[in-house]
Description:
Structural class: alpha+beta
Number of strands: 12
Radius of gyration: 30 Å
Distance between the termini: 39 Å
Number of domains: 3
Order of helices and strands: HEEHHEHEEHEEHHEHEEHHHHHHHEE
Largest sheet: 5 strands, antiparallel
Strand order of the largest sheet: 1-2-4-5-3
Number of helices: 15
Amino acid sequence: MKFFKSEKKVPPLQHDTSIPYAEVPAKDFEELFKKFKASADFLSFQYPSEAAFTVSYFKSIVGPDQVHQEILPVLTQQHPSTLEEVKNGIPVENIIISNDLKVIQDAVMTGSVIIQINPDNSHCLLVPCASSEKRQISIPETEFSVVGPKEAFVESIETNINLIRKRLPVPELQMKEIKVGRISQTRIAVLYIDGIVDQENVQTVIQRISDIDYDAIVDISFIAQMIADNQNSVFPQFIDTERPDRAASGLSEGKVVIIVDGSPQILTGPTTITNFFTAFDDYFVTWHIASVFRLIRVFAVLFSIMSTAIYVAVTTYHYQSIPADLLPTLIASRGAVPFPPILEALVLEGTIELLREAGARLPTKVGQTIGIVGGIVIGTAAVQAGFVSNVLLMLTALAALASFTTPIYQISNTIRIIRFPFLLSAQLYGLLGVAICAAFFVCHLLKLTSLGRPYLEPIFPLRVKDLKDSFIRLPFSSQTQRPEILRTEYSSRMQPKPKEDSRDIDE
């Protein structure tokens, strides 16, 4: 595989790994171990030999098998007299000897075993023995596809990187690791393919993550909000995915991937609004079918946002524009409803949101039952009681169903929220209010960026080449270049073959 190598290199973000041997005050060292021993899961015991060794560790984060198989036999059988002899006898990588309190604390809290010659000696041998308890790889839940791979990311950062490297086995796939969180010290990995990615994107991501000053980072969503270009926007500015194949595809395009230890999702960026209408299984079917599916999603989103707002505007201000054949149906539907259309719409929209939240917070089987039975019972009772009209009930149900067609969960939440400003605008100014609200969101999207890249690309600025894989998907033979928005160092994805005249089988 040939890449054009970049002359710009990202400096590695690593902590100082030198071993300071300056004397540490005994008082400070004792205070640190008092904090350790105050916890019930901290073990400390001595092994008598030529030198009295003290072994200490947190049993909740250290693997006991490795302690009993690799460490204790060295102390009991080889009879070492110094920490250097113990280090040379233990077949474990990344063992260090240090008296730096910060190094000792970080190592112990991440699963290292402390070995001392005697309790008064401040120099410690730190042996990494972290427990490898983790969830097994399962199928994707929020991005499930009928065809294609059935693997999803898990909470282990090593496993997630393995799932990506398995799909991109090239040395150009580089990783930079950063620790963020004053309390959590969460490991964050930034992945990119050197020679393809724009190094400016890499530097921007690393700089923004390094500047985060927060006490605990427990999920990737924290990072997505903190490094976004516009933190006040309701539109997501990174793709949040649980599919390794989608992450690998983004890396091959020239995007940057962010992985947080403890989170089963990863972030890819920069991104555009068209990416949120793209399901990865669109690439597993022919381009004709994939293009139709994408257009259906775009139409469904527009319908979900506009349908109830247009209903309120028409029935409130523009009833003269209702076709004569439809007018008797609307009159019969709203004849028994004592509320204005806006209140009727807000009641239905609020009911839909209540059912969604109840279904999401309850156990899976109970939640499905609440969503189906609750929707049918409440909807039927509301129409019979005269609180809402059956026409608006049908529109609201279709709008709620249409909002679920987006393959990325974050954009569906955005669609749920922005429907309410359109409703209020329709009540105030009718169709003019709907147009004003739409213009406001369009202006917001025109100014919005993702890692400094325009959010509405390839619509604005217009880039015809990138339209090949946006709202429609052309054949792979037409997608010979990587997206221009990514400004990749090596833009070619494949060499187009010259067209040859085909002959019939009987010629």
